[in-house]
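2024-03-11 09:14:02 DEBUG pipeline.ingest accepted 1 chain
2024-03-11 09:14:02 DEBUG pipeline.ingest length=367
2024-03-11 09:14:03 DEBUG pipeline.predict start
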Amino acid sequence: MPVFAQETIKIGLVAPMSGAFALYGQGFHQSMQAYMANYGDTVAGKKVEIIVRDNTTNTPETARRLAQELITRERVDFLAGFALSPDALSVANLSAQAKKPTIVMLAAASGLTAKSPYLVRVSYSNIQTSASMAKWAYKNGVRKVYTMVSDYAPGIDCEVAFQEAFESLGGKIIGNSRMPLASLEYAPYVQRLKESGADAVYLFVPSGDPMVSFMKNYVERGLPQAGMKLLTTTDLAEEYIKPMGDAAAYITNTIQYYDTLNNEENAKFKTAYLKIAGKNPGAIALGGYDGMAVIYEVSRKLNGKLDPEKIMAAMKGLKIKSPRGNLMIDPDTRDAVANMYVAKIEKKGSQYVPVVIDTFVDVKEGK
């Protein structure tokens, strides 16, 4: 029989808090703290505790080991975090075996939640962002696209999703490049792009240094002046936009959240996050806030009696108020159903910020 006497709801956060992807894990944690700042550190009469484990190596093996420790030693009620898809995939079997509800706060591989009945994703999938970008491009007159992605599972996911959606509408993919994930040397690929004759390039590389490096090459080779549009699906938090400088103005992007969205919940989120992190949040960090919202809402529904089977049942079809707008957990897939926003980067005063120019409403994975 389940034991309901525990007076603390324990959340085990597995994410890179240091190393190359430290901003991802720190963003999760800061957003979780922002949620608690807004809504308190208790729910259903129980204290909420976040137990952080640093996947500094950013490897699936470490993610699984840390998750196992949180389950067996800390006896957490929820696992959460998981920045990259291999991390989330590595704990899928573990979550199923331990019957441990697991909140995926970023990892965007398609079909991820099918790997375990105890996985719920509150971020988005690569299919949602890439297919929405393809639809927007075709709607706005783009007919010939060259795709460029980092050569790893999420990049290939994005490439395939964009291509299928774009070609289904009548567009043409006239070339593609898969670029080494570990390299920031994009010059040869950008030269190939320049010679392709495409109307636009669809790009997917990790946020941060890869985007900065690509944008430098894109501008140096005169592609904006040649009229080639740049379509991306990436996090445009201020910390990622600023290093791009003036080149950021050439980006058209699709994702589930920008800090410029105008709604009451986003205003509350930004205020709390700014106090904790000293900066505005982005699409990656948002997963921490929405993950906490799901945990709080389920805990209230169950009056703090956190039986794993009842948790998973309560999550299906769950609706929460998110800084992105409304968010629903798909009752069939346990994936996020939410708006996908298309934005251009514009200069406001001395800063470049994303400005929404179109919205795809309540997008499901694969739709």
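2024-03-11 09:14:41 DEBUG pipeline.report The first strand starts at residue 8 and ends at 15.
2024-03-11 09:14:41 DEBUG pipeline.predict end
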